[in-house]
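User: For a benchmark we're assembling, each entry needs the component sequences followed by a predicted structure for the full assembly. Here are entry 17's components. Please fill in the structure.
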Amino acid sequence: MIPAGFEYHRPGDIESALSILTQHGDEARVIAGGHSLIPMMKLRLTDLSHLIDLQDIELLKGIEVAGGTVTIGAMVTQHQLINDQGLADAIPLIREGSLQIADPQVRYVGTIGGNVANGDPGNDMPGLMQCLGATYELQGPGGTREVAARDFYEAAYFTERAEDEILTRIRIPVPAAGTGYAYEKQKRKIGDYATAAAGVLIRIEGGTCADASIAMTNLSDTPVWSVAAANALIGTAVDATARQAAIAAAIDEIEPVADNRGPVEFKKHVAGVILGRAIERAASRAG
Amino acid sequence: MTKMHVKMTVNGEAAEGLAEPRTLLIHFLRETLKIKGPHIGCETTHCGACTVDLNGKSVKSCTVFVGQANGAEITTVEGLVNADGSLGVIQEMFREHHGLQCGFCTPGMITRAHRLLQENPMPTEEEVRFGMAGNLCRCTGYQNIVKAIMAAAETLNAQKEAAE
Ligand SMILES: Cc1cc2nc3c(=O)[nH]c(=O)nc-3n(C[C@H](O)[C@H](O)[C@H](O)COP(=O)(O)OP(=O)(O)OC[C@H]3O[C@@H](n4cnc5c(N)ncnc54)[C@H](O)[C@@H]3O)c2cc1C
Ligand code: FES
Ligand code: FES
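Assistant: Structure for entry 17:
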């Protein structure tokens, strides 16, 4: 389990990181926590000869809650996401989701930037970010641009990010006060990726669902943000009939594949069960 | 590949060596520094036998490149003994409560438990189980590991109170 050789770089600022990335083209890769990348390198599934460690770049650190927006640096770890009280007050969905990722050791080093940039359909943060309507800031040699999480994922391991761009921060609008939330994940054991997972936000006004957002993890080769499923809830009392309609709409939009987590029919069944639970929990928290 | 010069503080002492950048921290600790406490169980980031404390975080040292740990403060199970060389509280409680059988997972378990109790000195049983979920044991069935950690928490808290 020894990866192929490479040259190691640890730049102190984003400009130096980008210049090394530009200089070496597709031979270079950035490393954040390394807990997706190093396993791939050990299996020799990733080909690179320059590794750029982002740990010293201050610009990529920190969590800020201001003016109705949460800004999270790409190098913020899952452990930090769980322990930041300001973030938990503003968007409790992120803590609930982060606690269901991997195990304690992985969460100390795994970063939100690495999790969303990775492009693995098994990662939980992309679905959460789509549910929340997050925006990713990408910095490249030509400057900075923003891409919505809902437009970022193209296929497994293929994203909108160009090879010479670094994901610097994530911006998330704070959901309206009283928005109910839930991230529900079915996995075989602690430390496993989802068999199926769903993130749900629900806002209720006068007993009726005024707004909803639903995204699912590991049920297609990208996360699935389902407008149809959310629409099935909006305008209803989120009763059993509405929940069933939302589940049917969501299942219609996923394309799970059979693997060691089960056959397609099983995954669709599990997806329905966890989405139902997530909707119920989110609705019960709305107020 | 040219080797890099790596320096770190391990169990309070300065340590250094040459290593290829692709060297994993666990191999650097065991083979270059001859610190054999942390074990290699799976080498695939699953079992936690290689857990060390790196800058105050429990990490699986089979999934860290040596360069990433350059300049870091590292504690292994060897660093958790008392000043006089006798077993530290967590180690002693693992012995007393039979928190091990073959002992292969134990260095990782104890190193992880150390950080868990630093962050949460009075955990519930459920919090211990959740906090130890990154460490696998093939022998004990976990019951006595949990017992040992709960007992260690109690002893450490009593010691702290007595000192105040
Ligand atoms: C045992 C185990 C269980 C796990 N279980 C889960 C789970 O249940 N759910 C889950 O979501 N994840 C899980 N993970 C993955 C873990 O959360 C990873 O840490 C995470 O996916 C990637 O974060 P990282 O910081 O380690 O990224 P790295 O591994 O360093 O990088 C991942 C990829 O993203 C790129 N990248 C990283 N940062 C940037 C950036 N700022 N800009 C551009 N590109 C970047 C890298 O080049 C690389 O291609 C698990 C991992 C392990 C080892
Ligand atoms: S050897 Fe590192 S987790 Fe198993
Ligand atoms: S005591 Fe044997 S693996 Fe834990």
